[in-house]
Structure formats: C-alpha cells, structure tokens
Amino acid sequence: LSQARAGIISTVEVLKVMEAFVNEPNYTVWSDLSCNLGILSTLLSHTDFYEEIQVFVKDVFSPIGERLGWDPKPGEGHLDALLRGLVLGKLGKAGHKATLEEARRRFKDHVEGKHVLSADLRSPVYVTVLKHGDSTTLDTMLKLHKQADMQEEKNRIERVLGAISQPELIQKVLTFALSEEVRPQDTVSVIGGVAGGSKQGRKAAWKFVRDNWEELYNRYQGGFLISRLIKV
C-alpha cells in the first residue's frame, strides 16, 4: 500500500495481495487490512469505483465473517471477540445482505429489551443499522443515548452517529454534537464520526466546523482537541 500511495505500483496490485488474506485468522492483520481498505474507500468515494470497492470488501471479509458468526464460541480469546466486531462492522457498512438483516434483527431485540447486545457487538450493529437507516433509526439511537446510564455507552453511540447517510440527518447529528446532550470534550468525536462516515458527511462536517468556528475555538482554545478536530 505504501508503494501504491507513492505511485510506484498500481493499486490493483495491492487489492490482489489483499485477496490472498481470506483465510487469515489473526486480528492484527485484519485490523491493518480494514484500515487500508478504509483509506482506499475514502479516496474512491469521489469516483465511479466506490460501489465496486464495497463489493470487494464484501468478497474479502465474508469468508471470515461466516467462520466467526455472531456469537462467541467456547474457548475463544479476547482477540476473537475484537475480530468479530471488526469484521461484522466492515461487512455491515459495505451492505452485506445477511449481516445487515441480522444486525437489524438484533438491534430491534436490543431496543425492545428482549435480548441486550453484548458490549463488543454494539458498535458494529449500531454502525450497520445507521448506515442503512432512516430518521426513525437515528431517533432510536438518540433515545438510547439519552437513556444510557454509563458514559462508555454514550461515547460508543456518539462515535457511530456519523454513519447515517441522508443529508438532513447528517445535519441533525452535527447540531446534536454542539448540544448540551454531548459533553464538550466529546463533541469532536461526533463531528469526526460524521467526517469519516461518508463523502456527504465529510463535506457537511467541514462546512459545519467553518460555520461554527468561533464557538468551537472559544470552547477548546489552543488545546489538543482543536487540533484533533482539524485533523479529522
């Protein structure tokens, strides 16, 4: 990937190498693959190849997703749980049909209190239903945020809200970022989530930061949060 980014080799060569990892069991390797594919997806979001890279993501990640399944197996380690969350989140965002259907089913049960999601499955499920959700999905997520007793759960929800796709809902999330519902130190996570969520989100987040620059700058002064905000 470094060679492709430097223009020495074709990105096609990178994708060919990635295909060779379909039977890889190691979390650290998949995390690296996921990160690199995320970089490519961001670059390709401004081209006609964006949908094709999503198909590629589904092809590469679905075999490991099928092997892992949704539920922990006896004798699994911590890294297997991390890998499951990573893979399901990647497949869900890419629109993998079976993953999306199962995420929606489990989310419904979670909201209704029938079967509460385990902590390691919440982020991938939330991201998946939001990415392919509507105003009702977002309202439900904001309600979960309001009801959450633990700050950890509030932060988890704040980080994924930017996955929502519709322009008017993206604006709603950005407005929420500066509301009293979100701690000042967590506002950056919400805006950053929008910036990383989609091409539309990136543009909307950049405009939002410029339009609200005075308030944001006064809030963070010269601290590390303002530099983190600009970086995202």
Walkthrough of the structure:
The protein is mainly alpha-helical and 232 residues long. The protein has a domain at 1-92. Helices cover 72% and strands 0% of the residues. The chain contains 14 helices and no strands. It is globular.
Keywords:
mainly alpha, metalloaminopeptidase activity, PSA aminopeptidase, peptide binding, single chain, 72% helix, 232 residues
Oligomer: single chain
Major sheet size, sense and barrel closure: none
User: How much of the residues is beta strand, in percent?
Assistant: under 5%
Helical segment count: 14
Structural class: mainly alpha
Topology:
Layout: H1 2-5, H2 11-19, H3 27-44, H4 50-68, H5 78-93, H6 97-111, H7 119-131, H8 135-147, H9 151-160, H10 167-177, H11 187-197, H12 199-211, H13 213-220, H14 224-231
Helix pairs in contact: 3-4, 3-5, 4-5, 5-6, 5-7, 6-7, 8-9, 9-11, 10-11, 10-12, 11-12, 11-14
Domain ERAP1-like C-terminal: 3-231
Protein name: PSA aminopeptidase
Family: Belongs to the peptidase M1 family.
How would you briefly describe this protein structure?
The chain is an all-alpha fold and 232 residues long. It has helices at residues 2-5, 11-19, 27-44, 50-68, 78-93, 97-111, 119-131, 135-147, 151-160, 167-177, 187-197, 199-211, 213-220, 224-231.
